[in-house]
């Protein structure tokens, strides 16, 4: 893989396109924090799926919140990954393209895993943990198309970390913290381990400050624009919630 260096445009110019510094910055701040919060909520339960299903039976609100926060965090991270890759691409285009593409594909795979987690939790509600554990164990490890993205789930963060370090978008410590995200266990119904906490904390250490910096790059928006965006976000969020309830 050839790694090419290119002339760097200004931060403001790079952040003026899609997804923009406000959406991208919000993604980088909110996404990692949600993942970390969700991981910590289930830290007291055993890592493997029988214990996770049992926890869903005895602590349904806690476990639903945990898995919901983690899955929402992964989904919300994709604009931030695009923004980070854009900054890296101003210096090392190949690392930005491959690192960004792999990281986003990895987020898609984790979203699929979250869907399986949700379906398994509903089995607990409908049939109890013992029956759900038996059903899950009979199909656990079955092939699905997203299994082919396992390397992307882990490798995307490493490529982004290397690119961020080489392009000086992140310093050595924060680039190392970003690479730690590759240690997050992959698959369905995974609990929390020390590696999970380290990976989520690494995401926060690497990306949250970068997101705040993105917000500070460029002129402050007009108050009317801020109000309009907040109204739009509230309206879209409400519509998505109502449609979700109807579905």
Note down, in words, how this protein is organized:
- This protein is mostly helical and 247 residues long.
- It folds into 2 domains: 17-216; 221-247.
- The protein contains 11 helices and no strands.
- Helix 2 runs antiparallel to helix 4 (60-76), helix 4 packs antiparallel against helix 6 (93-127) and helix 5 packs across helix 8 (150-166).
- The radius of gyration is 19 Å and the shape is globular.
- The chain starts with 10 loop residues before the first helix and ends with a helix.
- The mean pLDDT is 89.
Q: Sheet bearing the most strands, described?
A: none
What is the number of E strands?
Answer: 0
Sequence of secondary-structure elements: HHHHHHHHHHH
Query: Measured on Cα atoms, how large is the radius of gyration?
Result: 19 Å
Work out the oligomeric state of the chains in this entry: single chain
Topology:
Elements: H1 11-14, H2 20-41, H3 49-58, H4 60-76, H5 78-89, H6 93-127, H7 129-139, H8 150-166, H9 172-179, H10 194-216, H11 223-246
Helix pairs in contact: 2-4, 2-5, 2-10, 3-4, 3-6, 3-7, 4-6, 5-6, 5-8, 6-7, 6-8, 8-9, 9-10
